Each structure stands twice: as C-alpha cells, then as structure tokens.
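> Could you send the RNA-binding La domain protein prediction when you get a chance?

Sure thing. Input:
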Amino acid sequence: MSAEEVKAANGNADAAKDVQDLLAELKGDAEKTETQAPAEEDEAAKEARIIAEATKLGKEQAEQESKGERKPSDRPRRNYRENIKSDFTAQEVTDNHDEIRKQVEFYFSDSNLPMDNFLLKKVGGSANHPVELSLLHSFKRMRRFQPFSAIVEAMKASTVLDLVDNDTKVQRKVPLPESVNDFLDPNVVKVFENEAMGRSVYVKGFGEEGPKTQFEIEAFFAPFGPTKAIRLRRAFDKTFKGSVFVEFDTEETQKKFLALDPAPKWNGKDLIIKSKKEYCDEKAKDIQSGKIKASHRNGGHHGGRGGRGGRGRGRGRGGRGDNDRRDWRERRDEDQKRGFGEDRPAVQKDARGIPVIKSTEEPATSGQKRAREENGASEHAAKKVDVKEG
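Output:
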C-alpha cells in the first residue's frame, strides 16, 4: 500500500473514531438527561406539595380563628328601649326661663356630666369645651322649649354656665377637676357618686311605668325640697323596677325627708324609704352572704339624660346611657387611652407569603390572647337608671 493510501486509511479511521466518540458523548448526555429529569421533577413536585400543604394549613387556621370569634346572632336584636314607657316628648311646649335654665344646668352639673358619655366627650372632660345650644335643643326633653331664642335668653341669667361664641354655645364657669377625662372612668364616677351619697335616698313602691311616670315622680318629690337628680332604676331589659334614687341638694334636706312622720305615700300606698347608703350597705351584706349575686352589667350605673337627640334615646333626666352602642373606633380609642390592649401574635410567613408550618412540639400560642386588663375591676355594681334634676 502506498504512503498516500496508508495516510488516507488512517484519516478515515480517525474520522470514524471521532464519529464514534461523538455518538458516545451524545448517548451519554441523553442518558444523563434521562436520569436527571426525574430528579428535577421530584424537586418541583415536592415544592408544590409543600406549598399546597401550607396553603391548606393557612385556610384551616383561618377557619378555626373565625369559629372562635363571636358572630352576630341571626336572630333580630331585641330593642329593650321599648320597655321604657315614659314619654319625654309628651310635655306641653313652653318658653319658661326657669325650667329651661334648670334643665340645661343639670346637663353640665356634677350630678350628670361625669356620668354622661355623650356630653363628657363634647366637653372634653376637664378641658371644658363649650357645647352648641342647638345640639342641646335637639335633646328630647329640650324640644318642648320654644322658640329657640327663649333658651338663649334663659341662659343669660345662669350663675353656673357662660354663654360664649356670640351666644351660640354654653360652657361651665368652673371646669371639672383635672382627674376627669373625656371618657367614662368608673373610678371618677365612683368619686362623684360617693360625694352625693350623703344627700341621696332610696324609695320603692311606684308600681309599673306609664307614659307620665317620670314626670309624676318628679312632681311627687318637688314639695320635699330641691333635688339634683331623680333616677328611675331599671332592670337589664329596661323595665322599671318601681324604685328610684333621689339626690337632694343638701344632706340637711335629705335628713328632713327621711324624718317625715307620717312618711309620704304614693297613690295612697306605703313606700319603702331609706338612705341610699343604708340601701347599698344592705345589698353589700346580701352579696357577701350569698343571698343575691352582684350585677356586673357593663359596670357602673347606666341611665340617660331625658332624651338628648332624635335617635331613639329618650331617657330620664341624667345618667350615662344604657348599652355601649358607640362606634367601634370610639371604643378602641378609649381603650387605648386607658392603656388597654390585646396582643395577637402575627402568623409567621416565609418570603413567598406562605404560613410557616411549625412542629407539634412547639408551644401552641398562635390562638391565644392575653387577658385584657380591666380598669374597672373595683367598680361597684350600680344600677341602670333614668334621671331627672328637680
């Protein structure tokens, strides 16, 4: 074989070898790809499974939390205010300056303002902000005073309130103490109630309530001396208990009433009459002995102011309102002012926003809440009432 033929044969052999090597390399890559593909698919499937499990866990946790939350009842809410039978719009229209002045002065008095959530917020507690007369005129027990100009003229003679802002607003001459905030504080209320205890009485036996009961009881006590407040006591459902708390102007007036002989009667029937302190002491003993249970309805005594607006809140003269029906934002703001709070642990999530799965060995704290601190724990069990200043 010639040299050229040998060279050509070697070249062909080299080319064939290169082809074989290339085919082997391609085959190896193919086999490698085939073996790697299942592994990559396994990783993707595993991640998808984890995501699915985490999503499911998140949904289950949300469902558990929603089950634990209080849901509004499907039943229609009972309107206990329908049980208040006294009609505060039934009085005759008048422009009597003395009656106007007495009613407005009561709203801002120590016997009402510290317990009156609505007006207390308007006044700002000890900040002593003025309140528009037009707002006061919208109260149910104020609507009978006509015309509006009569209210302005009547307040010019007040010795405890000032007309301000071109006679459009009224404010106390002497602000409330600095301890009084712009929200109901059970401890502050208790201070004012204790201060009035010595001049207050408890009277029972007035029977069932009718449209004129509030005014008839006010008239009943009028001959016995000046009163600062007459509170009709009510059960949780707003029905009248047939008893009242009466706050006289002084302890001397209270003692004279208790000493009356014969004791006054209501429509010819005997009344149970005692000092408010005696009544409260007796109830405290009955609670301690287990004869009765203490009432903890929202804390404090609740009542009203004789209708301060056209929103179905007609009430006796004075007090603080019944149920807490404020907007949730107001309740939240007041809770924050008192230092209340609830710490809810946030659900931990990864970088993709998926809830983190914790092992069962870890402390189960995600659904727990810190017990709320009750600022009014020492508050006495007072009664829901309707109020009047006589």
